[in-house]
Amino acid sequence: DAKTTQPTSMDCAEGRAANLPCNHSTISGNEYVYWYRQIHSQGPQYIIHGLKNNETNEMASLIITEDRKSSTLILPHATLRDTAVYYCIVRIYNQGGKLIFGQGTELSVKP
Amino acid sequence: DVKVTQSSRYLVKRTGEKVFLECVQDMDHENMFWYRQDPGLGLRLIYFSYDVKMKEKGDIPEGYSVSREKKERFSLILESASTNQTSMYLCASSLVVPPNYGYTFGSGTRLTVV
């Protein structure tokens, strides 16, 4: 089972920041938080990942709470092309390193 | 950029046929994965492989097998296709040592079994 919970859907106005929350209250100390998104009819695309510090790249920022039980993905200036399903994933640390996906958040960016 | 290429974007097969879905990656990744995606069920792991000739069952391996004879290629085999295997199939690859930039997915193969 997925170790994360996310809202099913969210709306965001174009040009505004999109803040996508994720709860992962049972995360282990050596597990990372990954975010992916899936645009319709495409494969999931990596966005960002982090362990405990906040992270930023050209796509987004990731804010992880100090207790690591939740995180927020921030798209600072959402565009229509950011409309997608966003998955928050806790990576299981084993030989297989498999990703287990939850249901994700369907983000709709509206003009 | 890492590329994961799935041989077919759309595929239509008949019930009972043996179906091969091919996936090739070009970045020398150790790990490769096969998922299927269905509405309301999300992405579910079928099989994965962390080395040549190695394979591990995922969450829904029934009705499927896999082959990894070369590091860059991971094949998903439907021994006798059934209509309940109509789905989007996604292949992914990754390095084995965490953390890394993540997993890279192919564009998917939409399989219809009639």
Helix and strand element order of chain B: EEEEEEEEEEE
**Going across the major beta sheet of chain A, what is the strand order?**
1-9-8-3-4
Distance between the termini of chain B: 36 Å
Query: What is the count of DSSP helices of chain A, taking H or I runs of 4+ residues?
Result: 0
Unreliable sequence segments of chain A: none
Flag low-confidence runs of chain B.
Answer: none
Largest interface, chains and sizes = A-B, 23 and 26 residues
Q: Cα-atom Rg of chain A, whole angstroms?
A: 13 Å
Helix content of chain B: under 10%
Q: Structural class per helix/strand content of chain A?
A: mainly beta
Name the helix and strand elements of chain A from N-terminus to C-terminus, one letter apiece.
Answer: EEEEEEEEE
* Morphology call of chain A: globular
Strand tally of chain A is: 9
- What amount of the residues of chain A lies in strands? 35-45%
Question: Which terms summarize this structure?
Answer:
heterodimer; A: 111 residues; mainly beta; four-stranded antiparallel β-sheet; globular; B: 114 residues; seven-stranded mixed β-sheet; 11 strands
What does this structure look like?
The complex is a heterodimer of chains A (111) and B (114). Chain A has no helices and nine strands. With 111 residues, chain A is mostly beta strands. In chain A, a hairpin with a 4-residue loop joins strand 5 and strand 6 (61-64). The radius of gyration of chain A is 13 Å and the shape is globular. Chain A starts with 8 loop residues before the first strand and ends with a strand. Chain B is built from no helices and eleven strands. Chain B is globular and about 40 Å long. The A-B interface holds A 32, 34, 36, 41-46, 49, 51, 91, 93, 95-104 and B 4, 31, 33, 35, 42-45, 48, 50, 56, 58, 90, 92, 94, 96, 98-99, 101-108.
